[in-house]
Amino acid sequence: MLVTHGTRGDVQPFLALAVAFRRAGHDAVLAAPASFADSAVSYDVEFAPLDEGPNRLLRDPTMVKAIEGGYRGVRGKLTAISTIRRIKPLMADVLRDVGAVACSSGADLLVHSPSVPAQHAAELLGVPAVLATLQPGWVPTSEFPCPMVPLPRVPRFLNRATYLTVSATMRAYNGVVNTWRADDLGLARGRGPDHALVLQAFSSAVTPVDPAWPESVRTTGFWLLPRNAAWSPEMSLRAFLEAGPPPVYLGFGSMAGRDAQRIGDIVADAVRDAGVRAVVATGWGGLATRSSDDLLVIDQAPHDWLFGKVAAVVHHGGGGTTAAALAAGVAPGDLPVRRRSTPLGAADARCRRCPSATSPPEHHRHLAQRRDHSSRERSRAPATRHRPQRADPRGRRCRHSRPRPGGDPQWTWLTASRRPSA
Fold it and tell me: What is the mean pLDDT of the segment spanning 275-299?
């Protein structure tokens, strides 16, 4: 049983793992927000719908405004506290569904994301729980500070302490979890079982790996979902790609904004000023613009297909898009659309020494006034305009880091029956 919650970037890697399980001859059920049922069905993966829960807040104007501002100032901090209060009852609905699915699943292994404390359901079933993290920051280390916490550089001896912020945030939901344990699962209140294994589903080519981590922590590489064999590009997309030099891809994934039209206008102006062609993915509504001779607007397209046909990828730094861009080996551009970049986006920027990617995000009006000369020149360079750039060896390493049946120690462990004897 695989359990996750959130947006596409949170769900798609787990779908990739479910596909790998099935190809290895194992049964797997994916429990995720109900809105992802069609995606699971398209890959012939058994799906158990969970309540949309906190996803309902993604369209809330107050929430969007607070997230865009990075919860800055006193008002931002008050909004953050209010957000936790609003999420708690929504998370309770998700947990009730997780318990019900677990009881009917007959699973002998439970793999879950940090956002859903499903290890408690594993305790009820008497099976091992595996934590799968999609970005660095969940496993403490003294080697580097927690990349999920927006702190200035701290002395090395304080690195491990920075991870306490994340654990403190998760403890804010202890009340909801304990109520779930007692009322739904019939378990005594408590912290639940330890995880038998922690899988870090990202590439060591992008972010450091602490050699002092125990054997139970495995950095596996990205879990890349294979393209659905039934998918084919729309004629308009194929025709646009064939009509000229490779375009630039721009997309902000599941990041929604309050003024999608304003951002879309800025993007369209930037594309025109840079003198490039572009494919713009609207995603969850973070930007809105109209197609023109040099700009094609799409909803979405499989990254493993599209990124191999573009000159550069400008994105929000999400884990899935970062992984796909690395695997395709195209020129990157991580553009934070919140207060700061995501952990993987920032790590990728550091690896590539990309100044524009490590810059703090700018307000829309600043973006409208500012034109990055170096980015424009890179986009106009022959290597970029006439063929996709094939980047460094990290791309090859990331391309091959996906769930692979057999061979990998963590896969051998996962696919072995680990139900404790009576």
Answer: 82
- pTM higher than the cut 0.70: yes
CB neighbourhood size of 357 (10 A): 22
Cα–Cα distance between 43 and 405 in angstroms, integer?
17
CA–CA gap between residue 329 and residue 82 (Å, rounded)? 41
Residue with tokens 């729309």: 234
- DSSP-derived 3-state class of residue 65: helix
Average confidence (pLDDT) over 388-412: 53
Is the separation of the CB atoms in 168 and 148 below 8 Å? no
| Cα 13 from Cα 10, distance rounded (Å) | 7
d(CA 307, CA 284): 19
**The pLDDT of residue 364:** 45
Q: What is the pLDDT of residues 97-125, one digit of tens each?
A: 999 999 999 999 999 999 999 999 999 99
Beta bridge partners of 133: 200
| Cα–Cα distance measured from residue 68 to residue 268, given in angstroms and rounded to the nearest whole number | 21
Q: Bridge-partner residues for 157, per DSSP?
A: none
Within 353-405, where are the H helices?
Answer: 355-358, 364-369, 373-380, 382-385, 393-399
Task: Write the DSSP symbol of residue 115.
Answer: T
3-state secondary structure of 197: strand
In angstroms, rounded to a whole number, what is the distance separating the alpha carbons of residues 250 and 139? 32
| H or E element that contains 163 | none
